[in-house]
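Why do we bother with holo predictions? Because pocket geometry can differ from the apo form. Keep that in mind while you read this record for 4'-deoxy-4'-aminopyridoxal-5'-phosphate.
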Amino acid sequence: MLSPGEIKLRDGRSVDFANLDIAATAPCLRVVADAVADLLPYYGSVHRGAGALSERCTREYEQARETVADLLGRGPDDTVIFTRNTTDAFNLLARALPEDTTVITFDTEHHANLLPWSNTVRLAAPRSPEEAIEALEISLYRRQTGNVLVSVTAASNVTGEVWPVARLTEVAHRFGARIAVDAAQLAPHAPASLAGLGADYVAFSGHKLYAPFGAGVLAGRADWLDAAEPYLAGGGASAHVADDGAVRWATGPARHEGGTPNLLGAVAIATALRALVRDAAPRAREAGLVRRLRAGLASLPHVEELRLFPADAERVGIVSFAVLGADPGDLAVTLGRDHGIGVRTGLFCAHPLTRRLLAEAADRAGATEAPGQAVRASFGIGTTEAHIDRLLAALQ
Ligand code: PMP
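The structure, written out:
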């Protein structure tokens, strides 16, 4: 993994940076940086030119798509589209839905999976994985007309709690609905394949998957996507434009990848996914780090963890908490400048959920007022026990 090395603290000391904000953007894996660097000398146009460079870059781009498709367990009816990120993937899918589609989400979703949809039913925040399944079942039982797309997160970016996606998929399919999975936070921690989850669509971002910014993936059933208007009208998305302006749009992934594609981003994602599949050991360590952090936080009287599900629910390496009686912004600056720790503060682009969990946390702690923002520590490859202990000592 590429590392920033030591950073200077306010008092002049140098420490290795404890990056506990990996859920926002993960550091780049060495193997990913190497794959991108290896390609740079051969940089040429993708899908648009002749000659050695263009041929190589076109081949690399399509090979990256095939690698991603294989690792996601693509079925015969599935496609893989490179997008800018998860937000872009959901906006693309939202535009491709047949007109009579109702989208069912939960109140607890990240904004990327709340705001793109137009005809939505939002289910109240469930208090356990079982409640989520039951709520979906009831909602689908009542709604039998038109297409239905259920869209849920696989792992919450606020609490790290893992959602019962395979069981939600089973319920959705039982009622003839499709399911899209926001795998932005699951994919860096555990396999998030179409085949493994049984989902109709998955979306995730390269920059959370130890690859650089600027590329993401929407993978899943091709039929609605093939029938939809192109997401970005322009070159690449168009197969033929007549003199009178009539357009025949491209078919397949090109239809929604208008403009010059992000070759380096696609190669980076394919390389990162392959590396994560090959070496799951660093991810297996995460459960221990989660336990260590949660146990430490539980012993701090002024800190209250945020959670939606029961305390023993499965989690990825994300833990958010309220620090009672401290300004979260000041706290983040102190952690950064005096302790060399990077965390995230705020409502984490899941405002309804985080506000609610902050209020509950303040209640549990007997505080009269809930903090306006939460603090989130998130970790993954490269995080050590010493980083966790440094955070706990600083909070103490
Ligand atoms: N879904 C979840 C669960 C996320 O955590 C994020 C990023 N915070 C997104 C979607 C959106 O990802 P991006 O900003 O890369 O589009």
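The chain has a mean pLDDT of 95.
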